[in-house]
Amino acid sequence: MKILFFDTETTGLDAAVNGIHQLAGEIVIDGNVVDRIIYMIKPYEGCQIEKRALVVSRTNHEDLIYYPCEKEVYTSLVRLLYGYTEPLKANDKIFLAGWRAPEFDCKFLHSFFERNGGKETYGRLFWSNPIDIPSKCEACHIAKISQDRKAEEHDKHKQYKYTCCRKSRKEWISKEYQQPCRCTEMIQKSSQALHEHRTTVTSKEI
Hints:
Elements: E1 2-10, E2 20-29, E3 32-40, H1 51-56, H2 61-65, H3 70-82, E4 95-98, H4 105-115, H5 119-125, E5 131-132, H6 133-157, H7 169-172, H8 182-205
Parallel strand pairs: 1-4, 4-5
Antiparallel strand pairs: 1-2, 2-3
C-alpha cells in the first residue's frame, strides 16, 4: 500500500482562487517511510493572498516572492512520485492522506496539478478516495478497543464476545487509548517539517 501523508499551507481557504505556498509530506510504502518532501511555492499569477492565511503560517509577502514557481515544483513533485509508481499499471497508485484531506488539502493539490497541465496526471498518480486522518484514527481506536475488550471477555468467560459499538466515543476511549496512531504521527511530522523549515529560513535571514 502506498500513501502520501501530506500537509499544506495555503493563501486562503478557497481552492478556486487561493493556492498552496508550502507543501510537506512523507511517502510511505507498506508501512515504511521511503521519501520525504518539502516545497516552498511562489503563488501563481492572479492568486488571491489573504493576510490572515499568511499570519497563520507565519509567512509574509516578501517570503513568497523568492519561492520557486508552481511549474518548477510541479515538475519536481511529479518526477519524484513517478519514481514510486508504474504509470502503465492502472492499479498502481498512491493514497493521499491528511487532516481533513478530502475537504481541504486534496482540493488545493488537485487545483495545483490542474493549473500546471496535470489534471490527467493527478488521476494516474492518486486514488480518488483520499484518507481522512481524523476518521481513520477514530476507526483505529475503536478497532483496538473492541479487540482488547474481546480479549478481556475471553479471559473471564473463556469465549469471545462482541462488544457493543453504540456507546459514545467518550465512553470508549479512556486515557490509555488516546495515544496517536501511526497515521496521526505521519501527518504531525509533515506539519512539523513545515514549521522547522520556516524557522530555519527565518534564522538565516536574521
